Amino acid sequence: MTENWQRGGFGLYVHWPFCEAKCPYCDFNSYVSQSIDHDRWKAAYLSELNRVGSETPDRVLTSIFFGGGTPSLMEPSVVEEIIKTAGKLWPFTNDIEITIEANPSSVEAERFKGFQAGGVNRVSLGVQALNDTDLKALGRLHSVKEAREAIEIAQNTFERASFDLIYARQNQTLSQWESELSEAVAIGTDHLSLYQLTIEQGTAFGDRHKRGMLRGLPSEDLGADMYFATQDICEAAGLPAYETSNHARTGEESRHNQIYWRSGDYVGIGPGAHGRVTLNQMRLSTESFLAPGEWLKSVEDLNSGESERDPLDLGDQKDEFLLMGLRMSEGVDLSVFDFSDKYNEINNLSELGLVDKKDDTLRVTPQGRPLLNSILARLV
Amino acid sequence: MTDLSHIRNFSIVAHIDHGKSTLADRLIQDTNTVADRDMKAQLLDSMDIERERGITIKANTVRIEYKADDGEDYVLNLIDTPGHVDFAYEVSRSMRAVEGSLLVVDSTQGVEAQTLANVYQAIDADHEIVPVLNKIDLPASECDRVAEQIEDVIGIDATDAIQVSAKTGVGIHETLEAIVTKLPAPEGNRDAPLKAMLVDSWYDPYLGVVVLVRVIDGEMRVKDRVKFMSNGTIHQIDRLGVFRPDMENIDVLGPGEIGFITASIKQVRDTRVGDTITSEKKGAEEALDGFKPSQPVVFCGLFPVDSAQFEDLRDAIDKLALNDASFSFEMETSAALGFGFRCGFLGLLHLEVIRDRIEREYDIELITTAPSVIYHVYMRDGTKIDLHNPADMPDVTHVDHIEEPRIKATILVPDDYLGDVLKLCQERRGVQLDLTYAGSRAMTVYDLPLNEVVFDFYDRLKSVTKGYASFDYQLTGYQTDNLVKMSVLVNEEPVDALSMMVHRDRAEMRGRAMVEKLKDLIPRHMFKIPIQAAIGGKVIARETLSALRKDVTAKCYGGDATRKRKLLDKQKAGKKKMRQFGKVDIPQEAFISALKMDS
Ligand SMILES: Nc1nc2c(ncn2[C@@H]2O[C@H](COP(=O)(O)OP(=O)(O)OP(=O)(O)O)[C@@H](O)[C@H]2O)c(=O)[nH]1
Ligand SMILES: C[S@@+](CC[C@H](N)C(=O)[O-])C[C@H]1O[C@@H](n2cnc3c(N)ncnc32)[C@H](O)[C@@H]1O
Ligand code: SF4
Ligand SMILES: [Mg+2]
Fold first, then answer.
1. pTM of the model
2. Residue range B375-481 in CATH 3.30.70.240
3. Of chain A's two ends, which shows fewer C-beta atoms within 10 Å, N or C?
4. How confident is the model at residue B13, as a pLDDT?
5. Cα(first)–Cα(last) distance of chain A, in Å?
6. From the CA of A323, how many Å to the nearest CA of chain B?
7. 3-state secondary structure of B522
8. Which residues of chain B are within 8 Å of residue A221 when distances are taken between CB atoms?
9. Distance, CA A66 to ligand 3 centroid (Å)?
């Protein structure tokens, strides 16, 4: 039998924790720093890479993802060096996907060429909105014009390019979103990430929200209407959702994210990076130090930036398998674990038309997809 | 032992918050009963819950020694009483132990409902009454107006009312002198057989049951063997003493004196308040008139949120009941809520106090069901059922008629709000008995069904009068009316803990209010949920809670697996605060909140 980790592929995640400015909605592990010693960071990444590589020989790498933060602020030479070192540690699959996240305000054609030359073949651009007022409200440093230019450069430089938008913004109406999304689709892209704005605790928006100062957020109903409109527009444009918030033409899905959602194995390096690796038949969850300084110091002094390493018991694995897997339109394969304890709830949920079970495949139905949290609460 | 002529016994009575306990503080302090360094505000309110809520719940006794202006030493026994109507029983029995009352009236507020209730009790007990106008330090104080009101409304002479600030100490000396000169000394015969009144008893973890006594005739000493006349039990006195306000042992208690005894008594239930204590041999022939026992009037179910805590709840209730004879309980099972207890209370404040104590002192989270009263259900076959719980209502085809308890309610309110008060009473099926005016205040008396009052009447009264109304009531008796059981169905399933008895004419209105409230209280689910109120099989109100539409987390990257697991755990913890009925989760607070009426 194929082991689960073998089925999902094997990925490398590299976290770059710096941005030009902190966006008010963002709770990613990102910081603003005046001075970054790129050589020091390069050395630390390479050291970490060697550490995790020595633990995972005999794997074939399907994907590398530079995430952040704003990894497009990395020196192209550092990115290149990391990719080279990875190539020494693991053989790459022929179609390896190497993605970098980029912020439109840090796009220069030269820089992108550098990443491309170093091996990057896919880019994900944080466009967020196609109107300048909203970009300001979201604390973004770029304009719509710059975003459009960035998309063009990205599409010309890399084999594959995707961009992100955030909807359900303050004071946004359904029809505004519909026309904005139509414009986005008209740009012509094979992949789109469309996220409903989430108010996260501990962010500037979160604080404002707590004080009742964040006005004009959509009701649950309007949020749902926007979600359904999003599905319709994207499907009509040949970009169906393959995951809750991700849309792509068939074959253009982000393979890296699919590793996460299919409970595959991935190693994570950089501040706050998570990993899931199966070593000696045991599936481990790893975490790295969150704070950049602490992570660097730990890598330099102790040869490891890892802050936590916990075995996942079977129950945890089953939970994660559903938590991640049911986000995907393809659903999950129930034969991977013993889910007989869930059949009762699965039946209840299918009676409500929220899930659909055919043979061993469990999928969340189109009506069920926006209710995934409630569905999961019943299943895990 | 003090000579009768040098003893004065009195209670301090007033409307809630008019300053009884603070006045007691000053009397204690001025007579150096307690060293200044040990003094604190409302010293006698020693229970945590009293200190926290700033109210008196239990009456407290203190013995004070006072050298009067006439040069003589007097012993003063004061009893500080609670003002809230739920604890009126504490006041009434305290009054039986003393000969006089200080009637405290807040001079910024004037006569209020409990002022009246308490003063009438004092008059019934043949007390000499000394009016005290308190809080004269406040700018809003109006002594002349309030004195006049006392004369008009109560009909006692207030020309000599003492003007006091229990806060600053003004008028305290005058108060002490008035106690000595205006209140009568007790009467009694030291040589007659022992007759002592059992005024109160409570459980002390170190001493066992402590009994508060007032000696009428004869004497009590340590080692005496005494008889409780109601049940003939014999006890030997282990300890005997007085409160200053800490317990202090003395050798003998004589006529006119108030003090405590302990006698190896295990449970408060073994003592009967109002009982007469006499000596085992050559005892008194005739007992004193007993007290009317206090009766619980409000009932509700208490259920542990975590059903595994049922035994802990039993323990907690047993312990609290040890010390509170007016609190009753029996086991109850609810299809909706599992195992719990049906408890009886003196009123809503009493209910709240007990519930708070269980939650805090015993760390048990509770679901409280709607308060109810006792209905008399007369069956076709001639039998009668005392119905404490609407869920137990028998099949209506076997019921002949139902009676409900009624009260006489007295409400004092400034003129401006009278209209709102009358409207409220009318809505609650009240019948006006009286309406009089004293200055700019109106006093109205209503005959009301208790079941319309127990729940949120007082809250509503406060809100329609901005807190300016005061309210007091007494049970008057039972009366037949057109009463029905209203059930509530959530997702087509009856929720027994939400059923209630209502008047037929009010059923639609209450049913409508209830389903609307529930619609707001129950979170949306993945499917739509009908919420109905019904009488028998007939639906009288209906709402539909629409289905949840969207809750999915938008962004989920690799590291989020860990975070999502934690989030779901939190969601599950939140679910514990809910009760599951069929497929529907109902939050605990819904059981009480659903019944509150906004208008
Ligand atoms: N300004 C002023 N405040 C007073 C005076 N006497 C009492 N108070 C305040 O009034 C409030 C109520 O006083 P308490 O002595 O607790 O009243 P109470 O009558 O014992 O109240 P219950 O036992 O709950 O019925 C407290 O906040 C006191 O500080 C006074 O003479 N002047
Ligand atoms: C790490 S960021 C992408 C890269 C880059 N830092 C940027 O912002 O352009 C990943 C994406 O998550 C989305 N995102 C971040 N915070 C979000 C929030 N609170 N609600 C919804 N989407 C959010 C944004 O669309 C963002 O582009
Ligand atoms: S949204 Fe992107 S650019 Fe903004 S703070 Fe977060 S990671 Fe940085
Ligand atoms: Mg008091």
1. 0.70
2. yes
3. N
4. 94
5. 25
6. 7
7. coil
8. 549
9. 14
